[in-house]
Automatic annotation (TrEMBL):
E.C. number(s) listed in UniProt: 1.14.13.148
Signal sequence range: none
Pfam family, one: FMO-like
Source lineage: Bacteria, Pseudomonadati, Pseudomonadota, Alphaproteobacteria, Hyphomicrobiales
Alphabetical UniProt keywords: FAD, Flavoprotein, NADP, Oxidoreductase
Organism: Bradyrhizobium jicamae
Protein name as it appears in the record: Trimethylamine monooxygenase
Family statement drawn from the similarity comment of this UniProt entry: Belongs to the FMO family.
Amino acid sequence: MVKQKHVCIIGAGVSGLAAGKAFSSRGHRVTIIERSGDLGGVWEPARSYPDVQTQSPKDLYRYTDKAMPESYPEWPKGPQVYAYLRDYARDHGLDGAMRFNTKVEAMKRRADGRPGWTLELSSTDGAAGHEDFDFVAVCTGQFNERQTLALPGEDGFRAQGGQILHSSQYGDPMLAKGRKVVVLGGSKSATDIAVNAVNSGASEVTIVYREPVWRIPYFIGGLVNFKRILYIRAQEEMFKSWGIGPMSRLAHAIAKPFVWANWRGLESMLKMQLKLKKCDMVPKERIEDGVNCSVPIATPGFYPMVADGRIKAVRGTFDHYDGKTIVMSGGQRVAADVAVLAIGYRLGVPFLSGEHQAKLVEPDGQYRLYRLIANPDLPDMGFVGFNSSFCTVLCADMAANWLVRYADGQLKRQPSAAEMRDNIDMMLNFKRVERPAAGVYGGLCVAPYHFKHFDELLADIGTTARRRSPLVEKFTPPDAGAYARFLATAPVYKAVA
């Protein structure tokens, strides 16, 4: 018999909602702590920049038990994703479990010796206190704390009317109208904002980036949806993965010339389609060496605007401000009215003590997480949404379904602490030695190993169905509806008070 737990979910974004649904559906009492005033995480309207849309098609960016509306376009806009998440919370009765404008300041093991954690909470109205929970699911993900960049001359720039914004603060396109906009960063948010600034009537737009990276258009060659090339098991199997035996290694060695030709063909197509040579933005890195969560989607219109000069592209980074001019690391000077810092977010769990942080994060920044979900040295705790990818919602859903069973001791393959540590060490070695690209974002990116990751989670959970028909499974993207059917074949249980 599984005893009911009082579970704290930290974060009310995509991952927090997945965890809230997973734990409440198993009979647990759930409290969702959210520091902002609304649900949605990066999709909360107050945090979204104009024209933001998903990088993944709607049939990949969804929960297993809820499709996005038929009326949505294939790549939904920010307000549509927010509405989908709001409806999901209502569908599963999570509204009443949410505490907004509440921040986790710190957490420590319960002093009474019982399993669980004591959280130090504060709210925007000044209230503060401590609360005990039997289990904590950290669902803050990778877009939690804004990355900052403090440079000489900022005060003078602002004194002359200049504005410095993080990309998440670029909420009104009228900020750009008639003004000189300089965007720092090479992410999709950077290119999205640069294109939006042009379309919003900026007098000049400059994007400043360190090195060109491979970007994938929504339709490769203008015809084939990229999900049908990059999100299939056949393509995933071109990458050596962890834990493979001698025969698999031999197969990879034999196939190496064909795999090499596959990637060179894709590179050639992208160079031609996106006019990368004309834009002087051909990446130095081979595309297969960098395939992970940092390979962004090509913002429609970005490369044509660079090619015809509507967006000026400068390699380097900001060095300092000089009046209304931004001086680059290479000495270039760019006049600016608005500086948009599309430099991402700091990855971390700041409310954990230094002692617990040391158990979670390696000196090189990689996370010690079994299945990217749990750490054996941090009991009564798990992480949802730290297994990020291009199908982030599905990844969070699968992680949440795994975590509730792990917390309840109901996994078919319930790992021991020693097994978890050995597996974590093996995975860290794989990322450092065999697949360095897998070490970005704290080693928490699932791509390009979506299918293998899901296979492991389903096997642990104990589902009796894990695959579709061979051809469908090999040559079509992950199907959230199919994973709902697989999860339905797992043993059923309910926690009791």
